[in-house]
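pinned: reference chain
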Amino acid sequence: MIAILVIALAAGSASALMFASIISGALISVLLFYLAPLPLMVAAIGWGPLCATIGGIAAASGLGAIFGLPYCIAFVVMVALPAWWLGHLALLGRPAPSDGSGNDAAPATPVLEWYPIGRILLWIAGFATVTTMAALFTLGSDADAISGALQRGLLRILAPRDEASSGDIQRWVDAVVIIAPAAAAVVAMMTLTLNLWLAAKITATSGRLHRPWPDLKSTALPPMTLVALLVAIAFSFAGGLPAMLAQIVTTALMMAYALTGFAVLHTLTLALKGRTFLLSCTYVFVVMFTWPVLAMVALGLADAAFGLRQRYLRRRPPPIPAS
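pinned: its C-alpha cells
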C-alpha cells in the first residue's frame, strides 16, 4: 500500500506540474498541458484505479490551494476524471460466456472478455465533448457571448498594425471563431486517445499491463453511435447554443469514426504486399495535410453502415499463423 501511495503522489505531482505549466506561456508548455493525463493514466493502468484516484485528489487539492478553485475544477474535469475512468475501463473484464459445448472442465486460467475498445472510444468522445463545452462556458452562457469572447481574444492577439490589414484580419478571425469549437473538440479527442495509447504502451513495456494487448484493427463503435451522429448533425442546423453544442458532438463522433476508419484500413490491407508502405504514407499524409482524415471518417462510416471488414474477412480470411 505504501508503494501505491508513493506512485500515486508521484503521478499526481507530475500531472499537476504539467497542467500548471501552461501558465508560463512557453511553447513546450502546450505539449506538457496536453500530456497532463498521461502520468495518472499510467498509474491507473499499471497500479489500478485507486492509485489514480489518490494521485488525482492530491494533484487537484494542490492546484486548488496554490492557484484557486477554478484551476482545481479544470484539472478534475480535463485531466483527473478522464484519466481515472479510461484507465478503469481499460482493465475492466468479465468471464467470457460459455461456448455451449457442454465441457464442464474449468480452464487453468479463466478466459476474460475485456471492455470493447470501441466503447472506450465512445467514452473518449464523451469526455472530449464535455471538456470542450466546459471551456466554452467559461467564455459565456450563450452562443453570441462565446463567439464575441473568442473574437475579442483573437483580435487582441492579432491586433492590426494599419487600417489596410484590419479587414483581412477581421475576416480571418470570423472564420476561426466559427471553427474554433469543433477544432477544440478534435484536439481534445486526439490528445485523450494518444494519452491512453501511450499509457498502455508504457505499462506494457514495463510489464505492468494486466491484460493482453487488444486487436486494434477490430475496433468498432456501437451501432447506435451512427444514430447519435445523425441526430447531432440535425441539431447542428438549429442555431444558437444548441447548434454549437451539436457541432462539438458531431466533430467528436466523426473523429471516433476516423479512428475506426484506420482500423478498417488495417484490415482491408492485410493481403497487400506493400501494406507497411501504404499505411505509413496514409499516416504521414493525415498528419501533414489534415484533410485526408475525412477519407478515414468516410471509411469508418462505410464500415458501420455496410460491414466492410466482415465482408472482407468472409471472402478472404486472414492466414493462420504458424504454430
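why pinned: The mean pLDDT is 88. The chain has 13 helices and two strands.
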